[in-house]
């Protein structure tokens, strides 16, 4: 399979799952737009690595996923630079762990904005071009928490359930235009997002670091292994292939069996 001539926008892709997805798409020949926060020198290093390793063009957009106008501008810039946005991966996400009665209102608003609303704004901007060209792939990173809940994650679980519903709705709207819309639901992937929530979970549950890893995180996954970012990237590449053109409106698990029981 080749994605040469295609352009992919991947939000939240300066590290972790998003960076692995961007690299996997670039490896198949797609030009990519990466997005996210971090040290500018680190981001530039990753951008240049994508270009040099895969002989594609890589653009960095600092668009803030809490600002709809910046999201729309990112899509417009990608279309102007490369001529199209063929693949949109809504991957930006943050996490916060707290009992509901102590959950900061501003954290709720921020998580809903970044984890859910940003996907809507990006889809809204990208869909018209995809429909006009008669081809598109929209993939959102949901989570096993789009199917099941865990305590102390009210905003995250609500946002990921929302991604599931948004995916199904837009899939139906564009089904006859050569555009597929799916979400993937990883279990625990060893990324900075997961690593950084360990201290919060330690505090919330009164556990040690080892207990959080073994009794909270991997306890949910029957394989007792973390999903790797590279496995998620490969999954996204498959969904962009012609072999996956009849897969749309789906919430696809890659969670080590977490949601099987």
Write the layout of secondary structure elements.
Blueprint: E1 7-10, H1 16-27, E2 31-35, H2 40-54, E3 58-61, H3 68-82, E4 87-90, H4 105-133, E5 136-141, H5 154-173, E6 179-186, H6 192-205, H7 209-217, H8 229-239, E7 251-254
Helix pairs in contact: 1-2, 1-8, 3-4, 4-5, 6-7
What does this structure look like?
The protein has 261 residues and is α/β, with parallel strands linked by helices. It has a single domain (7-189, 228-254), classed as NAD(P)-binding Rossmann-like Domain (Rossmann fold, 3-Layer(aba) Sandwich), CATH 3.40.50.720. 48% of the residues lie in helices and 13% in strands. It is built from eight helices and seven strands. Strands 3-2-1-4-5-6-7 form a seven-stranded parallel beta sheet, sandwiched between helices. Helix 4 links the parallel strand 4 and strand 5. Helix 1 (16-27) packs parallel to helix 2 (40-54), helix 1 crosses helix 8 and helix 6 (192-205) crosses helix 7. The longest helix is centred in the middle third of the chain and has 29 residues, at 105-133. It is globular and about 50 Å long.
Q: What's the SSE pattern?
A: EHEHEHEHEHEHHHE
Number of strands: 7
What's the CATH class label? Alpha Beta
Radius of gyration: 18 Å
Full CATH superfamily name = NAD(P)-binding Rossmann-like Domain
Helix content: 40-55%
Structural class: alpha/beta
Output the CATH topology.
Answer: Rossmann fold
Sheet with most strands = 7 strands, parallel
What's the CATH architecture? Answer: 3-Layer(aba) Sandwich
- N/C terminus separation: 34 Å
Strand content: 5-15%
